[in-house]
Design goal:
By secondary structure, this protein is α/β, with parallel strands linked by helices. The protein has one domain: TIM Barrel (Alpha-Beta Barrel). Helix 3 links the parallel strand 4 and strand 5. It is globular. The protein binds S-adenosylmethionine (SAM), ligand 2KA, iron/sulfur cluster and magnesium ion. The ligand Nc1nc2[nH]cc(C(=O)O)c2c(=O)[nH]1 binds next to strand 1. Ligand 2KA binds next to strand 1.
Length: 209
């Protein structure tokens, strides 16, 4: 990356854009709602089951001016989901500022592993054991979405739920490759602990992005 471009990426004026697409939010509270997804490259959390490992290396995704991202987004939807990769790798203030000026509803999908930047209408926090969220995100998370890969994830989910507000909506989402094994346990857990809800990756059943 050229030095001047690198400088703009560090400031959040340009971002390594992996892909952007109009689809239906498949997961969590807003599942079923049409939204424009912006997937920003770069993540070093390293979940072994991550379903978008191609996003991890920011170097392979072109630095893109945030103005261009917003111009494209406006053509499709008033609801924008910023995801990745880990979007909080970068300073999200400039991008969310422009999206707000354009009157958009701005959602984020994040592990919370890095400092919370940007201003958001909806924060989906999906914490990871291997790189825990920074403390400032817990009071502002609108939904907590814990991925269940094995039994130990139920205890982790409870630890994380103890840190969010009482209004934060609690979801258990099966890890995709292990869903057949874990789904019955999740169903049983939610019936015994009804403060939790089930979240499925419905876009994968619908065969959409
Ligand atoms: C690819 S991540 C990108 C955003 C951010 N890095 C994060 O992890 O929240 C988007 C969402 O997909 C979830 N996810 C990733 N791989 C998954 C898998 N194999 N099965 C179920 N959910 C998965 C993440 O936990 C997160 O909620
Ligand atoms: N349809 C659809 N819904 C999603 N919700 C969260 C996603 C993500 O990868 O962040 C995602 C995604 O990749 N596709
Ligand atoms: S934090 Fe998100 S993008 Fe990063 S490895 Fe984990 S699931 Fe994938
Ligand atoms: Mg996804």
């Amino acid at each position: 990356m050229k030095n001047d471009t690198q400088d703009l990426v560090e400031k959040g004026i340009m971002l390594p854009l992996m892909e952007a697409f109009y689809t239906i939010q498949g997961e969590g509270f807003h599942k079923g709602t049409a939204a424009y997804f912006v997937r920003i490259g770069g993540c070093d959390v390293g979940c072994h089951w991550c379903d978008v490992k191609e996003s991890w290396n920011p170097e392979i995704h072109p630095p893109t001016a945030i103005g261009a991202i917003v111009e494209d987004a406006k053509e499709y939807s008033e609801t924008i989901v910023i995801t990745g990769g880990e979007p909080l790798t970068w300073n999200m203030a400039p991008l969310t500022g422009l999206l707000k000026d354009a009157g958009m509803q701005i959602h984020i999908e994040t592990s919370g592993a890095y400092t919370l930047t940007g201003s958001w209408d909806w924060i989906c926090l999906s914490p990871k054991k291997i790189k825990l969220p920074t403390p400032e995100i817990y009071p502002v998370a609108n939904e907590l979405k814990v991925i269940v890969y094995n039994k130990s994830d139920f205890a982790f989910a409870e630890e994380q739920a103890a840190k969010v507000t009482k209004d934060c909506i609690l979801y258990l989402q099966p890890e995709w490759s292990n869903r057949e094994k874990m789904m019955p346990l999740i169903v049983d857990y939610v019936m015994k602990n009804p403060k939790w809800k089930v979240s499925l990756q419905t876009h994968k059943y619908l065969n959409i992005p």
